[in-house]
Amino acid sequence: MNTVYIYCHGFASSPGSKKAVAFAQRFQELGKELIVPDLEDGDFRNITLSRQVEKIRSVIDTFSSSRVGIIGSSMGGYLASLVAQSRQEVKGLYLMCPGFHFLKRWKERVGRDHPESEGLPKTIQVYHYRYAREMELSTALFEDARAWDALPLDRALPIRIVHGVHDDTVPVTQSREFAASRPWVTLKELDSDHGLLSHMDWIVNDCLEFFTREGL
Prior knowledge:
By secondary structure, the chain is an alpha/beta fold. It has helices spanning about 20-30, 50-60, 75-85, 100-115, 140-150, 170-180, 200-215, and strands at about 5-10, 35, 65-75, 90-95, 125-130, 135-140, 160-165, 185-190. α2 packs across α3 and α4 (about 100-115) runs antiparallel to α5 (about 140-150).
């Protein structure tokens, strides 16, 4: 059976990110089909987890007779985990600094500027790496994230995580905790930060080796 790979970019990022491009180039060289969808669909302001999950599911639906391996960076790693819970076509996940506990981290971040007693504003300003500027983001994202936050990520399938020990966006402790309670997960800690750009060649090779080991 054929395997299709999907790359899920991170929050406020794009299919043109350095990591996404590095993976796309290498997979193309090897003749492997890698789909890199734009999870924002041109509407960053109104982005939600639900909308992005549906986008990934729609890509899977176009390859109904194929096995699927998903590569996810940061929030894309969290989204990959959410999708894999209900889609049996997904046979393996390769996650880079996955953004587990998304809602908790963002509540803390937004709460520093907007105390709970004041309530959340309808929008906040967030730096977007694709456009290299601050952009407006609807806080409906966080309300939508509540339902996903309650979803147990307990489907046993091969999962490989690589995480930078100097990550100040998503602490490596979150990946340690995730892997510790799930024997089907392996974790490799790297001397790098959230971007992992210092180890890109190694990471792409490690990803390919992981999927090969798992028969994908």
